[in-house]
Design brief:
- By secondary structure, the chain is α/β, with parallel strands linked by helices.
- It has a single domain, classed as Collagenase (Catalytic Domain) (3-Layer(aba) Sandwich), CATH 3.40.390.
- A five-stranded mixed β-sheet has the order 2-1-3-7-6. The chain has a two-stranded antiparallel ribbon with strand order 4-5.
- Helix 2 crosses helix 3.
- The longest helix has 11 residues.
- It is globular.
- Bound molecules: zinc ion.
- The site of zinc ion (ZN) has 3 residues, from helix 3.
Amino acid sequence: MEGLEAVLINDTTIEWRIKIDNKLGTDYNKTLLQDASAILSQNGMTVNIIEDAEAKFTIELAKPVAKFTADGMISITNGYNIPDGNIYDGQVTSKDSPRTLAHELRHKASLPHIFAETSKVENTKENQKN
Ligand SMILES: [Zn+2]
């Protein structure tokens, strides 16, 4: 029975081990990882983001980048990732906001924007900016 209980615990908990590469030039938000974990933990599933200097996955903390688009608008990029579904190694770039970090990590795990055609979640008033 103990073995069965351990399996059930593992079925609802995801551990994401990460290394932090701080390029902000300042200290980052001290509760960043716990706050991003809380955002990602939903519907009975717990996501724990744990800092580990030996991890193969890196979160690069960087300042937002502002660029002019072709039509003269300013576009601000708060994060970047390669959405390949590989959460064991690779990299996510994010500013030190838990919301942005959680957003980029979800993309890394292959989740599209809720308004994207490939999204399987209905676009409602509450989630339209996700
Ligand atoms: Zn996005």
